[in-house]
Amino acid sequence: MSRKHRPALSRPAPAGTPVSPEAHARQVLDAGRYREAIELYKNLLKQERRSEWLDGLAASYAGRAKELASKSMLQEALVIWRNRSTLCGKSLVEGPYLDWLLRTGAHDAALRLLTPTGDAVATVAPTWKPVWRRWR
Question: 75 lies in a domain?
Fold first, then answer.
C-alpha cells in the first residue's frame, strides 16, 4: 500500500519589521523566559555596558531565582541570586534572599548580612551571654 504525498505546508513568513536585540531581550523577559533572557542580556552587555541592560539582567536573574525557589530548589535559587548580586551590582539583602537563607538553615549567613560589621558573633554574643549562663 502506498502513501499519498501531501504537499508541504507553507509557513507564514515572520513579520517584516526586524526586532532589535534589546527589544527582543525585553520581550523574552516579559514572557517569563528568564533563562533565555539572561543569555540575551549577557550578550548585549558584552557589546556595551548600559544601566538599562544591567537592570534587565538583574530582573532576569531575579525571575529565574524566584522560579527555582517556587519549585523548592532553594540552593539553586541562592546561587542565581548571588550571581545577580555579583554581575549586576545589586544588594544581596533586597528581595527574598534572606528568607531563602533562613529556610535552608543558613542562619549564620543571614545574620552576617544583617550586621553592619559582618561579625555576627561579636554583635550577638553580649545579648546571648546572660541567657547562656542560665541554661548551663
Answer: yes
